[in-house]
Amino acid sequence: MNLKEFNNLPLQDATTELEKCCVSKCWAQHMLENMPFASADELVQKTADIWYQQCRELDWQAAFEGHPKIGDITSLKEKFSNTKNWATNEQSNITEADDAVLKALAKANDDYLNKFGYIFIVSASGKSAKEMLSIINARIKNNKEDELHVAMGEQHKITVIRLVKLIDDVSTADLRSHITTHVLDTTTGIPGKGLQISLNELTDSVWKPITAGITNNDGRIVDLLPPGKNLKAGSYQLLFNTANYYKEQQQEGFYPEVSIQFIVTNHDHYHVPLLLNPYGYTTYRGS
Amino acid sequence: MNLKEFNNLPLQDATTELEKCCVSKCWAQHMLENMPFASADELVQKTADIWYQQCRELDWQAAFEGHPKIGDITSLKEKFSNTKNWATNEQSNITEADDAVLKALAKANDDYLNKFGYIFIVSASGKSAKEMLSIINARIKNNKEDELHVAMGEQHKITVIRLVKLIDDVSTADLRSHITTHVLDTTTGIPGKGLQISLNELTDSVWKPITAGITNNDGRIVDLLPPGKNLKAGSYQLLFNTANYYKEQQQEGFYPEVSIQFIVTNHDHYHVPLLLNPYGYTTYRGS
Amino acid sequence: MNLKEFNNLPLQDATTELEKCCVSKCWAQHMLENMPFASADELVQKTADIWYQQCRELDWQAAFEGHPKIGDITSLKEKFSNTKNWATNEQSNITEADDAVLKALAKANDDYLNKFGYIFIVSASGKSAKEMLSIINARIKNNKEDELHVAMGEQHKITVIRLVKLIDDVSTADLRSHITTHVLDTTTGIPGKGLQISLNELTDSVWKPITAGITNNDGRIVDLLPPGKNLKAGSYQLLFNTANYYKEQQQEGFYPEVSIQFIVTNHDHYHVPLLLNPYGYTTYRGS
Amino acid sequence: MNLKEFNNLPLQDATTELEKCCVSKCWAQHMLENMPFASADELVQKTADIWYQQCRELDWQAAFEGHPKIGDITSLKEKFSNTKNWATNEQSNITEADDAVLKALAKANDDYLNKFGYIFIVSASGKSAKEMLSIINARIKNNKEDELHVAMGEQHKITVIRLVKLIDDVSTADLRSHITTHVLDTTTGIPGKGLQISLNELTDSVWKPITAGITNNDGRIVDLLPPGKNLKAGSYQLLFNTANYYKEQQQEGFYPEVSIQFIVTNHDHYHVPLLLNPYGYTTYRGS
Q: How far apart are CA B240 and CA A204, in angstroms?
């Protein structure tokens, strides 16, 4: 289906397709009201605007209910037949992980549910179970208010991925994350892989988490922010969990964490890399 | 007077001399009990041990009462005749500052007294009024508990300076601050001068301030920590107020602050420099 | 024309098309002998292999004769009718440059011809007259033997560009330069533009030039090495003309040049960036 | 003997004392002509001025003849009775080195003598045999003209050390080397020890060696340049032999050497440090 075909769908069919992307009725309703979309860019932009500005806490939580519990293959099969195929793909990397990690992830999922009252939502594309475990362990430390915002951001990433799959001529290839980072380990000469990173925002003199992720084999987090989502002007912080990174390598490091605070003033792309070694590091505004 | 002569002073005279250095009776009493001191190093070490480990909140506040209000020349002349000459010297740089800074400093002193209930204590040696203003503006943001620890650390620096003046063969020349830093501005090629820096300690997952200072013309803070005072093993943070630094230069910078977290494991000297430019910085463990 | 059609051309037509790309008979002859090409990659690889390994000095110089003198619009129009359209496009940026630069470039072209006996060959795509002037000024300092190798490398870049234009399904989009660099000016926070860079190779303990270029608006030189050309294992040097860079900005710098020597061991991609400020710089192996 | 007593020595005695410091008649004669020296600083300055500006190749080589061959204990004992004690001390670190190094050093001394026609002169204070071996291996690659200048600079360092020993109130404690460096290995967090460094000068577009040394345990070379010797304005190069550094550690590195070119404009102190790791490095103008 292309955008034109999508725009011409009967109301009932359009509703069904949208709810395959995100079960929030608030979001789907506002999307329907905005149809037809003049372009793929407009569709992606509206998706973000509605989700961040017109939906509220209850809408976000409603959307969370539409997901199978990550890693729980059984519930995945039974419960959500209409999104089954997609969800299976998105979580397909889990099956390759070893049992210990899966058990730890299942336990963390339970703990998360107990603490926050909803299941752990994460844009799982391309992530291994170990990476997801690292992310959930970071996010479970958040307070309820903060985590809700992190989780709804992940929901949005998932929604956009599904829209891209649904409509052939919608693409996010040109929409880089507003903020990107890149870790180079200058002791080994290769990218810093598996480093847990949080992105935080200064709100009322307190750093509030926006999202958390793990660097891939190229030392990057491709989807740190959802495509099309621009941060408002302000102070932001990238927090790198270097303690874990060096612990995994059984190496000593001088820095328990590296935190980089920087100022965002507009919608330009912000690239904030880290050149890391055990007793020194460099950061700069990249391009 | 040398150490031998000091050790041999009659009790009454020894008490008088010690109270010229610090009016806390707790500290003076424990010092007297430890006399004679076998060496200058032992005297400096005991000074720190007693102050940090045997004195308590009320003792620290009692010591604060022994100081003239910084910048208040009138009260200085009237109130504390026995330490007058020293205190005048220690504050002599103030007189060269311009009126606006002095008025702002006087106002800040009042605000500080109102908030914390005691006067602003700072080891003023070599500091201009502008530098002291910068320090008080940073410290006034602390909560009561934190600031008390910062103030007592400053009291300790003052006590040691006075002991060095009092006893000819006591010197702290070989006692570097346990942690030092050095700011190089690699855009100008000269040291980063007038940069406000805080040193914080991780306590129960919260960064607590230990001390605050301003870099001198060589980009350093010579007395960041009191001579002879070693930090316990743990995580520490140097926080550089780069927003103010670039604002004073009417230049734009990418970093509202630079924070460097690092691990202290022993009594070795820790040198944590910062190579700063508006859109990039480097830190490393120096020597 | 696609590759299949190209492979099926009658001998005479194939010869004509190849000579539009490079007039060297040695190169064209060997290419014909290697037809048909199984894939676009094979065609690009053979193009390099033949040029670098089977052609010799006289062949390279013969190829140079096939070009209009850069910037000499008149000779361009008269002399080489079959490559006219392409050459015009490749040199189209010159027309926008101001007269002074054009005159200096014409003068440099003459000087170059006088010194080396053949016209100045440069892959001009995307380069302004000012950038070409900067490149010719750097290359004119080379000795005859060295410059011949630089010029033939440029000829090869041009040949490949023309092959890509000629055959629709030949692309070099996936063939990054074996060595790339990227200059970030961390004083301004933007890429270092217009910086003249040479790439040199250690041969018998002497640094021999391989190529020279100018960074674009993104601080990069996209075609530093020809696509598909891999350097042999050895020591290489990137030499950045920082004196000129800062002179153009009417700024003082500490470094008259920055030279980075590094070891190439295989066909992996080598990214060697420079984070530059007037009194400091950082380099690392990137990815 | 203090400076006043030295100034008042009878001509014959003054000559004898000066020749204990340096056997060049040219230098001693000019020194005598400049007596009395108004201050220690003047004496040190004249020592350099005469040596660098008034003495010539034959004078420098004459001075070399006054030294025992380094490491050749036998000739040391027999030949130069008047400087014996000092020379023994200056070379005392050799005795601790192991035999293999001593043999290699003796061999290198022979090779050096064969190539240059005079013995290897090096200011040996504080240097181990291994360090001297590293230095001679670097210097033996110089051409005759260049090495003569390096050797005469070493002679000058030795002369100054001896003057300081001879005259009680002459000191070079306040005379830092005009150029200093400092290597920090940010992979290990400790200074880069045993790194061979050359200092070169740009003369007629060629880098000419001025001196060579080895970093000590603190990553520094204290006597890179002779005390009181200021370089003239120009371009200089510090060349770090990182290939050997990483080879000794049986580690792979990306940089066969690190070379830093910088501009000296006046007599200010120039500190040019290197923060080194296997796949990245940083340099800056320090203070």
A: 20
Q: What's the whole-model pTM score?
A: 0.91
| Helix/strand/coil for B60 | helix
pLDDT at D174: 78
Question: Quick check: D287 contacting B, CB < 8 Å?
Answer: yes
3-state secondary structure C171-231: CCCCCCCCEECEEEECCCCEECCCCEEEEEEEECCEEEEEEEEECCCCCECCCCCCCCCCC
Say yes or no for a CB contact (<8 Å) between D284 and B186. yes
Distance, CA of A21 to chain centre:
15
Mean pLDDT of D73-89: 42
| Secondary structure of D156-171 in HEC code, one letter for each residue | HHHHHHHHHHHCCCCC
| CA dist., res. B105 & res. D273, Å (int) | 39
Does C104 contact chain B (CB < 8 Å)?
Answer: no
Buried b / exposed e over A241-251, threshold 16 CB at 10 Å, is bbbbbbeeeee
Is pLDDT at D93 greater than 70 in this prediction? no
Residues of D in contact with A186 (CB under 8 A): 277-280
pLDDT category at D76 given cuts 50, 70, 90 is very low
Find the range with the poorest average confidence among A123-127, B175-179, D250-254: A123-127
Minimal Cα–Cα distance from B261 to chain A, Å? 6
CB D6 within 8 A of CB D17: yes
Which of C188, C254, C282 faces B282 most closely, judged by CB atoms? Answer: C282
Residues C261 and D257: beta-carbon distance below 8 Å: yes
C-alpha D249/C-alpha B9 separation (Å) is 58
d(CA B135, CA B148): 15
What sign for the dihedral angle of Cα B58, B62, B64, B69? positive
What value of ipTM does the predicted structure carry? 0.89
Distance CA C30, CA C43 (A): 12
C-beta neighbour count of D212 within 10 angstroms = 27
Question: Are D287 and B184 within 8 A, CB to CB?
Answer: yes
Listed residue (A195, C5, D99, D191) closest to B285, CA to CA = D191
B254 in A contact zone (CB under 8 Å): yes
CB-CB neighbors (< 8 A) of A286 in chain C: 184
Average pLDDT in chain D? 89
CB neighbourhood size of D16 (10 A)? 13
- Closest partner residue to B256 (CB to CB) among A235, A253, A258 is A235
Q: Would you say B151 and B135 are in contact if contact means Cβ atoms under 8 Å apart?
A: no
What value does the mean pLDDT take over residues B122-140? 86
Yes or no, beta carbons of C187 and B279 under 8 Å apart: yes
Closest partner CB to B281 (pick from A253, A256, A283): A283
Instruction: Test D256 with C279 for CB contact under 8 angstroms.
Output: no
Q: Do A278 and D254 touch (CB under 8 A)?
A: no
Give C-chain residues touching B275 at CB under 8 angstroms. Answer: 280
Of the residues B183, B279, B281, B284, the best mutation for testing chain C's interface (the one with the most C CB atoms within 10 Å of its CB) is B279
Overall average pLDDT of the B137-152 stretch: 95
- Tell me the pLDDT tens digit for each residue of A81-125: 334 444 455 555 555 446 677 788 888 989 999 999 999 999 877
Instruction: Extract the runs of DSSP E, i.e. beta strands, from D68-195.
Output: 179-180, 183-185, 190-191
Taking 50 as the pLDDT cut, the residues of chain A under it are: 73, 75-87, 96-97
Residues 6+ positions from B282 with CB-CB distance below 8 Å: A280, A281, A282, B274, B275, C280, C282, D275, D282, D284
Torsion of CA B261, B263, B266, B270, to 10 degrees: -40
